[in-house]
Structure to design on (365 residues):
């Protein structure tokens, strides 16, 4: 493919479909009763939550002259940003080339291709940095042969974060008050983008980050991860470490149990990140009686019918939702113990800036 091979007509009218998602009260048992929390249903807007980031990154690059009209956009993605870029590419008139990996769900591959994306799949993880590093290596090869191509680099692009300003404005319109915000963290974009404006409105607002077990973002060791969306095997620079009051690592069994409870009891549900933030939001509503708690459900359940909601998949991966943890194990700092299931830590630091050496008395926790 050459940069000029595909010419797309921009369809700016699509931008009217961005965001403006509903906020719903969740009261389903997670896993037990709780006072309820608010969830922003990002899966109900065209292109999902990441369409906000995708449009922001492409418009920013267009303004700076880094993305020429009609030039291709190349990005590495595990899915959601890909859908957002497919949307932004159609709206702004850019062909989209995505680098995914073998773990990308077949339904997501079909959806991306249906929206006109050219999809490249890497078939093995890199020895260091896993699938993400393998995808980035292929992306660099593509950039070398597509000289006009623009790489948004969602992990480090400040326009990813900027794209969530409207999400924050919607939340301040939809809520009278907010005490606790719970956000999943992958690139760090949406948590970083909404916490600033929300704290200007509610200065005492607590921010709880939710990461995946085996993710390096908050200083845990890198391990193979089953969950997609939240978590990372690199250290994205968009994570607003200083803004978080605490972090929870959630395992796949807890996320599956939570997604299924949501689907059964509150109708709305989603994937790994939705299950994880719902579990932690219910916990926060329980331990902070009277507090208003809100979270963001990044996408809906459809992509996960063959994983989170499939008994054969969960059995094959040794996940028993009925054995999922019902409360977090507390650790004093991120390196005190490796999180195998749901773990909570109220000390949050950037692992690249302040490597933490475990206190000898804490090493055996
Ligand atoms: C489904 C899903 N949930 C949550 C996240 C995390 O969001 P962020 O990248 O804004 O931290 C992502 C990021 O890719 C995602 O795809």
């Amino acid at each position: 493919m050459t940069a000029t091979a595909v010419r797309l007509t921009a369809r700016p009218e699509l931008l009217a479909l961005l965001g403006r998602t509903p906020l719903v009260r969740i009261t389903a048992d997670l896993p037990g009763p709780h006072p309820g929390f608010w969830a922003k249903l990002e899966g109900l807007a065209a292109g999902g939550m990441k369409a906000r980031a995708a449009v922001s990154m492409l418009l920013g690059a267009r303004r700076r002259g880094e993305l020429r009209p009609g030039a291709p956009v190349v990005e590495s993605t595990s899915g959601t940003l890909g859908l957002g870029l497919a949307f932004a590419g159609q709206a702004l008139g850019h062909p989209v080339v995505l680098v995914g990996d073998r773990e990308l769900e077949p339904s997501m591959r079909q959806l991306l291709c249906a929206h006109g994306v050219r999809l490249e799949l890497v078939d093995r993880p890199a020895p260091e940095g896993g699938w993400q590093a393998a995808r980035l290596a292929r992306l660099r090869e593509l950039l070398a042969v597509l000289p006009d191509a623009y790489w948004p680099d969602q992990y480090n692009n400040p326009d990813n974060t900027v794209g969530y300003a409207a999400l924050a404005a919607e939340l301040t319109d939809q809520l009278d008050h907010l005490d606790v915000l719970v956000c999943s963290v992958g690139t760090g974009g949406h948590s970083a983008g909404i916490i600033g404006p929300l704290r200007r409105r509610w200065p005492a607002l607590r921010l709880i980050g939710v990461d995946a077990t085996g993710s390096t973002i908050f200083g845990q060791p890198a391990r193979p991860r089953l969950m997609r969306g939240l978590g990372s095997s690199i250290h994205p620079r968009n994570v607003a470490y200083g803004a978080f009051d605490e972090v929870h690592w959630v395992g796949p069994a807890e996320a599956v149990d939570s997604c299924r409870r949501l689907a059964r009891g509150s109708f709305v549900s989603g994937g790994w990140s939705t299950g994880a933030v719902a579990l932690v939001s219910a916990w926060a509503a329980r331990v902070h009686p009277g507090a208003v708690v809100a979270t963001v459900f990044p996408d809906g359940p459809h992509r996960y019918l063959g994983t989170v909601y499939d008994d054969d998949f969960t059995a094959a991966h040794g996940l028993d939702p009925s054995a999922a943890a019902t409360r977090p194990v507390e650790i004093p700092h991120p390196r005190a113990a490796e999180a195998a299931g749901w773990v909570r830590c109220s000390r949050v630091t950037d692992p690249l800036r302040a490597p933490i050496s475990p206190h000898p008395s804490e090493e055996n926790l």
Remarks:
- Residues 80-81, 184-191, 229-230, 271, 273, 298-299 surround pyridoxal-5'-phosphate (CB under 6 Å).
